[in-house]
Predict the 3D structure of the following.
Amino acid sequence: MSLGTASSPQLLRRMNSGALMRFALGAGEFTAAEAMGATALTRSTVLGVCDDLVAAGWLDEVEDSRAAGLTSKGRPARRYRLREDAGVVAGVDAGENRFTVVVADLRGGVLAGARGDAPAVDRRKGAAAERSRAAAAVERRALAARLLDEALAQAGADRTDVLVVVVGVPAPVDAEGRSPAGDRDFWKTMNPDFADLLPGVAVVENDANLAAVAEQSLGGQAHVANVATLLSGERLGAGVIVDGRLLRGARGGAGEMRFLDIVEGAGTPDGVGALARTWAREAVASGRATALAARPDATAQDVFRAAEDGDALAIEILDRLGERIARVALVLASLLDIERVVVAGAIADAVEPVLRRARVVLAEDFYPPVPELVASALGRDVVVRGAVESARAYLREEPLAFTPRPRA
């Protein structure tokens, strides 16, 4: 098919430039020959495009291979690298209780970060609770902006340097970055139009989806085409990949766990951290003999530590959590033919005892196939790491749609 004689040279040049930029975004220093091998472009095309990208401010030409002492024979190879100060990307984990912001260079290297506690959200009914949620939404917007500015300042950058920022929220998110009404406006409180507030290309995404991106792209787990990444702190949410594709749905609600309210043995969408804390406090209030009695405001971490020390109540709570996780995993596997469920988030470092019990329940109480259960290795920052990686993916998709920072 003809592209048209007038426009085809310019279009071809742009396509070649995009291909070379995608290579440069993942490379360190590179030679023309290395770029040729990665892009299948000719030497003359690579050299011409690299000259264009140097002029545009995306690349720097560095010492040739002979001057750098890499070779002493033949024609010296021209060498290039992505310009270090061409811009930055940012990721924001706008959690229910805590925000984390990371600013990274265009290859994903972390430059700086900032954290802050989120305002409490009143989930009850009534006019007073509605006013509280409206105020919390305003505070969440201000907190995201403040932490981003703090991280940028630490990185020696400012808002004009931001090419893409991705925000993860504990709510379904549609293709326009908005969250639907529902759950007493909790979702809209969690996502108070962040996309209108932040610099660069601002993208809002569900936090569990970003955790799934991190697990698949950052070496958290071996690649699996059918996997659910289960965020399990205060509430359960799943980023679901089926046949290698991230599921979203019309309103971004794929992976929302509200259906657990009607699943026997699962009960609610409350997460492992929230349930461990709630069950421990209820037992202590009832006068149950336990080492946790000294901690009437016991946290999930207290429960896990007590279980390690052999406390009977804490072990019982972890077993109950394992039974619940087993049922949640089986529901996901039954509905979507999931092969693996990855439990991620801050609780992942300690969740192995829960998963051991869950594996026993799956083996003894249900017939195969049942999903593999594993803990994430990416720690509490899995969402913000997924946000940074997603920001880089947006940049790689159409790099020439962005403008690099002017040279000093």
